[in-house]
Amino acid sequence: MSRSTFVYVTYIRTTAEKLWSALTDAEFMKQYWFGMHCESQWTPGSPWKLVSGDGQIFDAGEIVEAERPRRLVIRWQHQNKPELKAEGASRCTIELEPGGTAVKLSITHTIERDPSKLIAAVSGGWPKVISNLKSLLETGYIAVDEPYPIQTGAQQRSA
Predict the structure, then answer these.
(1) H/E/C letters for each residue in 84-131?
(2) What is the pLDDT of residues 90-99, one digit of tens each?
(3) Nearby residues of 105 by Cβ (< 8 Å), 6 or more positions away
(4) What is the rounded CA–CA span in Å between residue 79 and residue 91?
(5) Which residues of 32-63 are buried (b: 16+ CB within 10 A; e: fewer)?
(6) Is pLDDT at 159 greater than 50 in this prediction?
(7) What is the pLDDT of residues 2-42, one digit of tens each?
(8) Pairing relation of β-strands 47-51 and 37-40?
(9) Which of 24, 59, 97, 147 is the 20 to 30 A CA-CA neighbour of 81?
């Protein structure tokens, strides 16, 4: 079967423990994930969901692997848009590798479908979320205020 994959790698000036906490603490997460947060016990087999500020569930699934503060694997299915939900479950692997003054953060998001609208969507979302996380941990401020591009008049007419 064909597979679609999105990979994002960055280095964040922090410790692996602080980065793990930032990735798993719901209240901290709201600061860099545009008001959204994840809910889980963060143990293998436990449920996982991404929830908006108004309580809407965007993604739901389960924790496949959790090795604090090194590796987290989540299997989830999008819940909000029917065309993305129809693609089925995806797998997101998050790896943290400490080295010197920074931690290498690698995110690999895959789905058994090619092409995938879900992977196209996360390839636009992950860079914004992780840029905000990196900036927040390093400077105390997020980098991007809007999760979606603000359309200009010309973009709205052509859409």
Answers:
(1) HHCCCCEEEEEEEEEECCEEEEEEEEEECCCCCHHHHHHHHHHHHHHH
(2) 999 999 999 9
(3) 9, 10, 11, 12, 19, 94, 95, 96, 130, 134
(4) 15
(5) bbbebbbebebeeeeebbbbeeeeeeebbbbb
(6) no
(7) 899 999 999 999 999 999 999 999 999 999 999 999 999 99
(8) antiparallel
(9) 24
Q: Angle of helix 16-24 relative to helix 117-139, nearest 10 degrees?
A: 130
> Which DSSP category does 152 fall into?
P
The SS3 assignment for 35 reads: coil
- Average per-residue pLDDT for the chain: 92
Give the span between the Cα atoms of 40 and 100, in whole angstroms: 30
- Over range 130-138, report the average pLDDT: 96
Its pTM stands at 0.89
How crowded is residue 82: how many other Cβ atoms within 10 Å of its Cβ? 8
Q: Which two tokens stand for residue 68?
A: 């604090």
